[in-house]
Amino acid sequence: GPPAEGEAARPAFADEAVQTLLRRMTGLDLQKVFRPVKTELKPPKYKLMTEAQLEEATRKAIEEAKEKLVMPPVLNEREPIDDVLAEDKFLEGTETTKYVFTDLTYSIPHRERFIVVREPNGVLRKATWEERDRMIQIFFPKEGRRVIPPVVFKDEHLVTVFQQDRHEDILNMCIAQFEPDSPDYIRVHHRTYDDIEKHAKYDLLRSTRHFGGMVWYLVNRKKTDGLLTDMIHRDLLDDATSLITLYHMLHPECQSAKEAKERKLQGVDLIKVFVKTESQKEGYIQLALQAYEEAMATSTAS
Amino acid sequence: ALLAGSHLLKGYRGGHVVIRFALGGCTNRPFFRIVAAHSRRARDGKYLEQLGCLDPLPNAHGERVAGLNLERLRHWLGCGAQLSRPAEKLLGLAGFLPLHPMTVTGAERLRRRAREVAAPPAAGSSGAGDAP
Hints:
Chain A: Keywords: Ribonucleoprotein, Ribosomal protein. Chain A: One of its GO terms (molecular function) is structural constituent of ribosome. Chain A: One of its GO terms (cellular component) is mitochondrial small ribosomal subunit. Chain B: It is found in: Mitochondrion. Chain B: GO terms for molecular function: structural constituent of ribosome. The structure holds 2 protein chains of 2 kinds. Chain A is mainly alpha-helical. In chain A, 51% of the residues lie in helices and 6% in strands. Chain A has 13 helices and 4 strands. Chain A has helices at 16-26, 30-33, 51-68, 129-139, 155-163, 167-177, 183-199, 211-220, 225-233, 237-250, 255-263, 267-277, 282-301, and strands spanning 84-87, 98-103, 115-118, 123-126. In chain A, helix 9 packs parallel to helix 13 (282-301) and helix 11 runs antiparallel to helix 12. The longest helix of chain A has 20 residues, at 282-301. Chain A is globular and about 90 Å long. The N and C termini of chain A lie far apart (51 Å). Chain B is α+β, with helices and mostly antiparallel strands. Chain B contains 3 helices and 5 strands, in the order E-E-E-E-H-E-H-H. Chain B has helices at 70-78, 85-94, 101-130, and strands at residues 17-26, 29-38, 49-54, 63-68, 82-83. A 5-stranded mixed sheet of chain B has the order 4-3-2-1-5. In chain B, a hairpin with a 2-residue loop joins strand 1 and strand 2. Chain B is elongated, with a radius of gyration of 22 Å. Chain B starts with 16 loop residues before the first strand and ends with a helix. The A-B interface holds A 85-86, 88, 90-94, 97-107, 114, 116-118, 124, 131, 134-135, 138-139, 148 and B 52, 58, 60-72, 93-95, 99, 103-104, 106-108, 110-111, 114.
């Protein structure tokens, strides 16, 4: 399977360098970040501003957009809990259903809350992660989260969502519903990223907070060819170089990483070396690069 | 003895704080609130503080849900509150207090009754066959 993230020698998702690269690749398209979310309709407000005021407003908008683009954490799957606190076998047969006891003390964090289950066979055990999430949602409800996860997160229904191109919406719902280290969260995210990579719909997530997670997933599994082609087609050479730098950070033992470090390559040369050694779909990327260079040549010539 | 003036402020003679179940809900649908109240108050009347709840009917996942505010429970027990027998049994099942002896006795009685129901028909049928 894919290697676990967060070991001491390898860079983790939350490292500053990795985050900077991912943030640069996400981009900052204000039109997309602040596109109308379905709220109640209000007539548009027009303001008359000087140039300086407009710059000030744009600067504030960029800061707010940066808030919105904070990436959700990428964690390993959580270990299942099975811890027995007491065994009282003589209670067998007195009850028919189990009891779930939740500690409702307000000041303790949800991760440390005591949630225990007394089974009909008398065993007193700690609750499983699913039981924990359900109980915490019943007694301390969170906005946007349901007690029983909606049916749309099952694999057969995710297909329908992907056909309607609503990857960003389903990922937002997933973040609201599940904890970042739950297996459902990880499964939904991986399915979404796989579907985007299969149909090359990278632009759906660009300039959203999910782009960084998608790039991290693809680079860890070395499936970066489609993304690289897409970036070159859209003339985003800086993003392409950031992607390859990230790849070298995560896989320092690969040949292109060693060559790049020796010869200290920059820009288009870095991409060419990477394409020659690491990529599977060399042909497509070479074509895209050629098209880009021709476009550059004609634009500088004219 | 009622204080002169206010109808709302009831003064009692004696009594102590108890932690017990207050019944609520609708017909054929009980719901208990675990409550710290004066012993002389009505079962469902004004209480000092709600310390949790218990739903005696099993939910869709086959579990009976109970919530207990352990921090406030400890506070009231520290203030010298007493517990009603069902409250003690529930806390024993939860593991907060040791198991109530009546829970153990109840389990033993159930098992003895089950054995008697199984054994006498066997003894009775063999005895009737043996008897002339």
